[in-house]
Amino acid sequence: MELVETVRGETREVSRVRHALAAALSDWGVGDDDSDVAVLLTSEIVTNAIRYGGPPMELHAELHGVDLRVSMDDGGHDPVVPTENVRWDARGGRGLHLVEALSNRWGVLNGGRGKQVWFELKLAG
């Protein structure tokens, strides 16, 4: 099962993509707890792509059995690294820390057209 969403460079796209993924996960029979984590982490990688990447942007979500892989492609080439020493009162900087903490695996692929940030979750099944 697969979901592909083209993402425009507007912050309201985060909400639209969250809803699209949540609907797809529901259709695929993914439970609420797993869905909530996947939607949260997707919000983080989509937000980062909009803020720091550039067009073209596209989200892919694939479910194979209990393995979910979500990836966000964008046209940016800047390095992707978690923010060091995030202040407790900072408005941002925790997104990749959440991805790292809550996913089974995550990473970044760099290519000629830009980069891809991805994460994988092992679902409860």
From TrEMBL:
Q: Which Pfam families match?
A: HATPase_c_2
Question: Which controlled-vocabulary keywords does the entry list?
Answer: ATP-binding, Kinase, Nucleotide-binding, Serine/threonine-protein kinase, Transferase
Q: Give one GO molecular function term.
A: ATP binding
Q: Which Gene3D superfamilies match?
A: Histidine kinase-like ATPase, C-terminal domain
SUPFAM superfamilies membership = ATPase domain of HSP90 chaperone/DNA topoisomerase II/histidine kinase
What InterPro entries does the database record attribute to this sequence? Anti-sigma-factor_SerPK, HATPase_C_sf, HATPase_dom
- The UniProt record lists the keyword ATP-binding: yes
Q: Which residues form the Histidine kinase/HSP90-like ATPase domain?
A: 10-119
**Quick check: keyword Nucleotide-binding in the entry?**
yes
- PANTHER family found in the cross-reference section: ANTI-SIGMA-F FACTOR RSBW, ANTI-SIGMA-F FACTOR RSBW-RELATED
Q: What is this protein called?
A: ATP-binding protein
Say which species the protein is native to: Angustibacter luteus
